[in-house]
Amino acid sequence: MAESTTNAPELTREQVQTVLVKPLEAASIFLAAGPRIFDSASPVRIPKLGGPTSPDWIGENEPITEKDVDFDEVQLLPSTMKSVKVITRYSNELARQSVVSLDATLRDRLVTDVASKLDTQFLSASGDGITTPKGLFAYSGVQNVAVGGKISLDALLDAWGKALSANVNMAALKWVMTPREFVTLRKLKDGDGRYMLTPDPTQDGVFRLFGAPVVVSGRVPDTGGSSSTGRAALVDFSQIAVARDVAPSVKILTERYADFDQQAIRVVARYDAAPLNPQAIVTLTGITPA
CATH number, domain at 160? Predict the structure, then answer.
């Protein structure tokens, strides 16, 4: 019997495609949502005015009441703030023999992971503002709606009302919620079984609730524990300040592991974030699963 590719596959040359299949990645949404970004390598102080001075009605020849103006500030990027860093090394043999551009592939992978780490922290309920940035659901002084049940349109209107009461720029607001909460809202039906939220056929992939865009992200954290509840928020991101020391930057290290005949890729990023006006953020907490 003649030898063929069937009975002697070891002798055939395989065709390895140079396309690397990468997993689907969640896009960074916090920085894309529009916070104010300040580039600085040192601590950042942003002055802001305090409360109103409450002028009085003064008659003719009456003394004018003196009023003091209060000042405050937002402090970002203290010297104690940590960075997100990662190093991956690889052999020069692997770099030469790889069917894909190994350094470019690893660079993209590490930059994506660092950006994801930052985005997850910015949307979290953790952080102390000293060594790690405070997350959106850890800010002090924000407004809150305690849902205490399934998310509903009434709960969204309650959050909307709190934003109105605080004189927030309503045109700049965005909803932030998990896919689970958004799908729950999309499933709401009226008495005739019709969906209460209907998609706009003139828009492609644009989610809105009461006129405000919806940012859907699985990085919005639940409370955790045995009786875990969900969170959502109504946010004017222009009232959040982000201090950026180093955007995700890449360094190829060719000498550090020279005695192993290896190279390495290092990615570093350092950020901080804080609200300029906490009243422009309304959180919805205590959301139970549908």
Answer: 3.30.2320.10
Query: What is the phi/psi pair of residue 126, to 5°?
Result: -125, -175
**Spatial CB neighbours of 90, under 8 Å, sequence gap ≥ 6:** 102, 106, 262, 263, 264
Span 177-187, pLDDT tens digits: 999 999 999 99
CA distance 75 to 129: 9
Q: What pTM did the predictor assign?
A: 0.86
Number of domains in the chain: 1
Q: How far apart are CA 59 and CA 80, in angstroms?
A: 54
The one-letter amino acid at 54? S
Domain residues for 151?
31-48+69-198+205-287
What confidence tens digit (pLDDT) does each residue in 178-233 have?
999 999 999 999 888 888 887 667 766 678 899 899 999 999 999 987 889 999 99
Q: For residue 26, is it within any domain?
A: no
